[in-house]
Amino acid sequence: MDFLIDSLHSALALVFAADREVVHAVWTSLYTSGCAIVLAALIGIPAGTGLGLGRFTGRRAVLTGLNTLMAMPTVVVGLVLYGFFSRQGPFGDWGLLFTPLAMIAGQMVLAIPIVANYTVAAVAGADPRIMTTALTLGAGRFRATWQLLREIRFGIIAAVVAGFGRVIAEVGVAMMLGGNIRGYTRTMTTAIALETSKGEFAFGLALGIVLMAVALIVNLFLNLLQQR
To answer: Which of 37, 72, 88, 139 is most buried (most C-beta within 10 Å)?
Structure first.
């Protein structure tokens, strides 16, 4: 028990002292995850809206595939993209492997199915009269869809928050595509895994505290929006 208490004291000291390595790992996590979720939202929300409103042959198969992608292991995503970004891969000349851009790409791939699925669920649960009323009043298809998205905005926000929570807490993609390079691609999760394996439990605990704080802040923000 003394070990845990002493480690917690050391971890809090690192956090409040704004240790350089802790700050950089936190910044890298927030930067890559933030960019990834923005890109995922730009793709996933329109895709989910289209799937939620559309009725076409093969729609069920597409939804099944989307649900399957939600459960795809992160190491599988990392492995596939590693093949694309490695020197022998089709994008090898771009020099993306072991860079923040590669990590953003991997996290975006992870987040898109989550954002799209949550959006599909939000659209399916919306009042069907919203679109009908808007179209009856003379709105075009695009404007009517925009009105629908405004009505289900909390569901859309939940989709983005869920996607962000997925990518900021993952390890496999960040490790395989970023390489866990100190001062460059080391994130909170990869640093926790590395430092704990080296016996630096207090350092890993410090990053774990920050990671939990980020999750708490994001959820408090979501609750605040819902109350408004």
So the answer is: 37
- The 10s digit of each residue's pLDDT in 169-191 is 888 899 999 988 888 999 999 98
Mean predicted confidence (pLDDT) in 149-158 = 87
We report the CATH number of the domain holding residue 171 as 1.10.3720.10
Residue 2 belongs to a domain: no
Q: Domain range spanning residue 222?
A: 22-227
Q: Copy the structure tokens of residue 3.
A: 């070990």
pLDDT digits (tens, 9 = 90+) for 70-120: 888 888 999 999 999 998 889 888 989 999 999 999 999 999 999 999 999
